[in-house]
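As a warm-up, study this chain.
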Amino acid sequence: MNKKDELLKIFSIKLRTILFRVSLNYDLLQEIRLRVNAPLIVIYDNVEYFISNQSQMITNNSDSYMITKNEVRETMEYISNYSLYAFEEELKQGFITITGGHRVGIMGKVVLEDNKIKSMKHISFINIRLSHQVKGCADKVIPYITNRENNDCYHTLIISPPRCGKTTLLRDVIRQLSDGTKYFPGLTIGVVDERSEIGACYMGIPQNDLGIRTDVLDCCPKAKGMLMLIRSMSPRVIAVDEVGSGEDIDAIEYVMNCGCKLIATVHGNSIDDIKSKPILGKLVREKLFERYVLLNNLDGVGHLEEIYDEHGMRIY
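Now compare it with the structure written out below.
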C-alpha cells in the first residue's frame, strides 16, 4: 500500500473523497488538520493551504471545506479501528501512532483523576503529522561522531531550534550506526522513544528504519528508559530525543559512567546557549559530551551548521 492509500483510509468517507482528488505529492505533505466547525487545512512544503469544496489548495478561506463534528467522530473511529478505549494510554499523551509511523495528535476535553490525565472525550481537534524518513541525511555527520580506531562513537549532543530537523537527523544517525558502514561495524543501540517520534512504533514495531541492531522502548520516560536499557539490553549506544530535565541529566551521567555512549538532542541555538541552561549546562561545562552538532534552517530544514569537539574547537 502506498503512502496516499495508507493515509486516506483513516479519514471519514467524505474527507477521504475530497483529499483523494487533491493534487498532492505526499512526500511534501507535512500535516493535515481537522477542527470542528473550521476549515480543512494542510501544511504542504512548509506552506499552509486551505482545501476547497472542489478539492483545490487555496491560500484564503473563501471557499474552504468546513469540518463537521460527525466527520471528526467518524475519522476517530477509523483511526482507532472502532476501539478508542484500546488507545487509552496513548490518549493520555495526546497522540496515536498509526500504520506508516504517522502521528495523530488529538485534543478535546481532558478527564482528570487524582489530578492526573485519565482519558479524553469530546475530541474536536485532530492533527495528522506525516512521517518522513530522510535516509542519508546523516552522511556528513557520521565521520565526525565515530571513532574508527575503537569501532565506537563519541558522546554526541545535537543542538537545534525547533523544527530544524534534529529528530530526523538523530533517526538517520541511529540507523547508520546500527547497520554499520564501510568504515566500521554496526553497534547495538538502545532507543528511548518517549513520544514515539524516533521509531514511530505501531503495535510495538518501528515504522521507521532504525537499523538491524536497534532495540526500542516506546512511550517510555527517558530517564527510566535509559536505566532499563542499561540493565536489560547491554547497548553500546543509547539514543534519546530532547533531553533537559533533572532526571534526564542524572540518567545521562549514569549511562556515561557505565561505559555506554550517548547520543541526544536538545533545543538550542549554540553551545553557549546550552551552557546557560541550569541543568544541562553542567554536562557541557564538565566536557562530558565529546561532539556537538549544530543545525539551523537557513538553507532548508536540517542544514548542518557546525560541529565542535568537547573543547569547543570547531571541526566542521
